[in-house]
Amino acid sequence: MQHKNHNNKSIKVEGRELTTEEFHTWLMNNVSTDQEKQVTRRLWNEAEGGDTMDKESTRRIWENLQHRTAKRPSKGRTVYLKQLQRVAAILFIPLLIASLFMLYNANRFFDLENAVAELRGAQQTVYAPLGGKLKVQLPDGSTVWLNAGSKLTYPTMFAEQSRDITLEGEGFFKVQTNKNKPMIINTTGIDVKVYGTTFNLKAYPDEERIWTQLVEGKVSMKRHNSTAGKEHFLKPGHEGVYYSDLRKFKIQPIDDLSSVGAWIDDKLIFKKEEFGTIFKALERHYNVKIEVADPTLLKDLYDAAFQGESIQEVLEIFAYSQPIIYKIHKRERQPNGFYGKQKITIKRDKTRR
Which H helix or E strand runs over 120? Predict the structure, then answer.
């Protein structure tokens, strides 16, 4: 069996400097049963598959392992822990777990299979604050940019057969290609199956439409939790729209491919969008509360593009071109001493048509 050279750093074990290949041989020579050899070999192969952990995940997992083993301290075990702390910085997490299993095998205290299950079952949730954005690195190396008011939940370690995550809000994805292990993005209405690609997914729970815009690669869409539902495949340069109220899909070409994910650069681009949808985007982008006195305004369609303007400047542009009047209220101090969101009221200007 051939092994990839994960890095060029050496590992000090029992007073000797070992290469990654020599460390693998040392591991295999320090297990006593066929079952342990099988587990070690499987974890090593998983590490070669490329599922790595970021530094923060490594730190939290390592602290958890230390907590679990602190109940039965020994001098020899302390020495090994110090060695493994150095190993943790340069090895893949599955390989680290395999090492711990060998070192604690004599006491039968550390259950490797349960540890792997715990890692795969552990979930992390990250948020992009209102008025901001967030960049996230997933365990497989995929990258996600989260738009304001979005939430992403993903496992500390992906499962063997799939990469399942959950999105509430909007994200721009660059997913590592793995045809044998697709990524499944769960939203409030649909599931998006990703085979390795670049795309934008907009799925805010308070909006009736879910948008998937494909820049390159291959994705499919189907209704959430529908095992028999039809998969709707997208081609690059196309977008899929799911109307949750009608429970229907629509696939169409993207008018302007350069606008996909433009929000990452603080660009707000609206193409034939309802005023109500635009107001929600402005609320998240500027962290304000917009109240519309005339509900008939919400269904009007508009084209607009902004970058760098303040909320007042954006409202001035709308008021100049559309029959609306707006008022920006002062932020009110709450009983807890903090100030609430800035409130904006909008109504129709009946003196204009």
Answer: helix 112-121
Question: What is the value of pTM for the model shown?
Answer: 0.68
The two tokens of residue 61 are 């997992």
> Which alpha helices (DSSP H) does 137-248 contain, by range?
none
Residue 273's alpha-carbon distances to 172, 182, 204, 296, 307, in angstroms, are 20, 32, 15, 14, 17
Q: Where are the strands (E) in 275-320, listed by range?
A: 288-292, 301-307
Which residues make up the CATH 2.60.120.1440 domain(s) of the chain? 123-259
- Cβ partners under 8 Å of residue 71, min gap 6: none
Phi first, then psi: give them for residue 218, nearest 5 degrees: -150, 130
φ/ψ (deg, to 5) at 341: -65, 150
User: 1 near 38, Cβ under 8 Å?
Assistant: no
Distance (Å, whole) CA 276 – CA 257: 24
pLDDT tens track for 144-169: 999 999 999 999 888 878 899 999 99
Q: What is the CATH number of domain 123-259?
A: 2.60.120.1440
C-alpha dihedral, 279 to 282 to 287 to 289, nearest 10°: -20
Fold classified for 266-348: Phage tail protein beta-alpha-beta fold (3.55.50)
Report yes or no: 192 and 168 within 8 Å, Cβ to Cβ: no
Whole-Å CA distances, 234 to 54, 65, 94, 134, 164:
31, 43, 35, 26, 20
- pLDDT at res. 69: 44
Angle at 93 between CA 116 and CA 26, to 5 degrees: 100
User: 110-149: string of b/e by CB count within 10 Å (b at 16+)?
Assistant: bebeebbeebeeeebeeebeeeebbebebbbebebbbbbb
Domain with CATH 3.55.50.30 in the chain: 266-348
